[in-house]
Amino acid sequence: MKRENAVPLTIMAEEYAKEKNIPKQSARKVLEKRLKILVEQGIVERLNTYPVSYKLKKLPKILLLPFSKKFRLNESFD
């Protein structure tokens, strides 16, 4: 999911179902639970469109920390 683009839940569920080899209904339920948490944390925004779409508001700190630690380690070798 990119920051500028909204992604419909149906497309996310299809991709997730293919990736995990699970039924689309199960994939949708899993994604709805996870997206609800991300909405509460302010990371993802739920858009009032049909079909329901989600948009990335900001990157979570968890994703940024490993990169910044790795960057600092590589930087010290210069």
The CATH first-level class comes to Mainly Alpha
Give the CA-based shape. globular
Helix count?
3
Return the structural class.
alpha+beta
- Estimate the mean pLDDT confidence: 79
**Rg over C-alpha atoms, rounded to the nearest angstrom:** 16 Å
- Helical content stands at 55-70%
Key words describing this protein structure:
single chain, 78 residues, alpha+beta, Arc Repressor Mutant, subunit A, 3-stranded antiparallel beta sheet, 3 strands, globular, disordered C terminus
3D architecture notes:
This protein has one domain: Arc Repressor Mutant, subunit A (Orthogonal Bundle), CATH 1.10.10. Strand 2 (44-47) and strand 3 (53-56) form a beta hairpin. By secondary structure, it is of the alpha+beta class. It has a three-stranded antiparallel β-sheet with strand order 1-3-2. Mean pLDDT is 79; it is low at 74-78. It has helices spanning 9-20, 24-40, 61-75; strands spanning 6-8, 44-47, 53-56. The protein is globular and about 30 Å long.
